[in-house]
Amino acid sequence: MAEPIEPRKLTAKEEAKLRAQFAKDGREAIRQKLYIGAYSLTREGEAAARWLRQKEIEQEARERKLLGYSKWTWDAALAAAVLAAIAVVLAVMALPQERIKAMEDFGAELAKAAKGLSK
Question: Is the pLDDT of residue 3 over 80?
Fold first, then answer.
């Protein structure tokens, strides 16, 4: 019984040419060709599968990096909001009672003036 013959491997030049064509066609087109069996068990099909997997790995890495940035941004925004709330509470607590009373009186005068204008 004859031994199966292994197909020869792609040269670096052939693989580079295929990769350029894959990049031109785009990920979705290559994925569809692989799915429908357009490459079947050819060397080009193996190169297409490797290229597509590499592109998916790169995309996953970009998404992980973006997720890290968004988590950091959320944490920074939350910290800023907490610090702002603390600053408001401390500012109100630091106001002398006379100042608070004057602000309340001013607010009452404004309300009275607004009522007078609306009549």
Answer: no
The Cα 100–Cα 43 span in angstroms is: 81
Dihedral (Cα; 69, 70, 75, 79), 10-degree rounding: 100
The secondary structure of the chain as a DSSP string is -PPPPPPPPPPHHHHHHHHHHHHHH-HHHHHHHHHHTSSTTSHHHHHHHHHHHHHHHHHHHHHHHHHHHHHHHHHHHHHHHHHHHHHHHHHHHHS-HHHHHHHHHHHHHHHHHHHHHH-
| Predicted model pTM | 0.52
Query: Model confidence over 50-105: pLDDT tens digits?
Result: 899 999 999 999 999 888 888 989 999 999 999 999 999 888 777 777 777 888 88
